[in-house]
Amino acid sequence: MRRLGLLVAAGTVASVLGVTVPARAQWIVFDPNNYVQNVLTAARELQQINNQITSLQNEAQMLINQAKNLASLPSSSLQQLQSSIQRTQQLLAQAQRIAYDVQQIDRAFSTSYAPVTGSQSNQVLITNAQSRWQNSVAALQDSLRVQAGVVGNLDTNRIQTSALVTSSQGASGALQATQAGNQILALQAQQLADLTAAVAAQGRAQSLEAAQRASAQDQGREQLRRFLTPGQGYQSQDVRMFH
Length: 243
Fold this sequence. Notes:
With 243 residues, this protein is an all-alpha fold. It has helices at residues 2-17, 32-69, 78-93, 102-110, 122-169, 174-228, 236-240. The longest helix has 55 residues, at 174-228.
């Protein structure tokens, strides 16, 4: 009724003023319920867009992390470690006389280090004694050379250890950390190889020295027997060669 009254009043005013009023006036109607629904719909769409943006950001960060995890170390110590191992191997391969070879060892201990027999001539005994002495001296020299080589590798190992620890601490991803750790393990393996070589060289020298003493005692008994046996023809220079 109020709306009808307003229309009548407006028509009256228009008649007085001489204004023509359209038969159907255009009215703007505000619907609050519809407005609220539109706002909620826009908010939901905006939230979906924000979620998509966040998801894309997470995927981008994941790709960045994957790139870091797949990045390799900028430098490698493997070449230096391999060079150190090769130097030690070369020193072992240069072993004089009785080398690190099972067949050579068997031949030597079947001849120069074999038990003395009564059928061996004095010259054979003297030759064997000289050979054993030369073997011992050569083994001692080889042991010292290997030990010198191992000591020479210490400075290289120190530098590589420092570089690898720094690389491990500053690794940007899992791959770099793993590679640094693997190279540290390789360095430890190289140091163990050097230690094994030094122990082997020293053990070789000690073994040959012990074998020389055992053979010298055996030949000493044979020397005494021949010296005391008439007709053996032992000469004083022969006696000196066994000592």
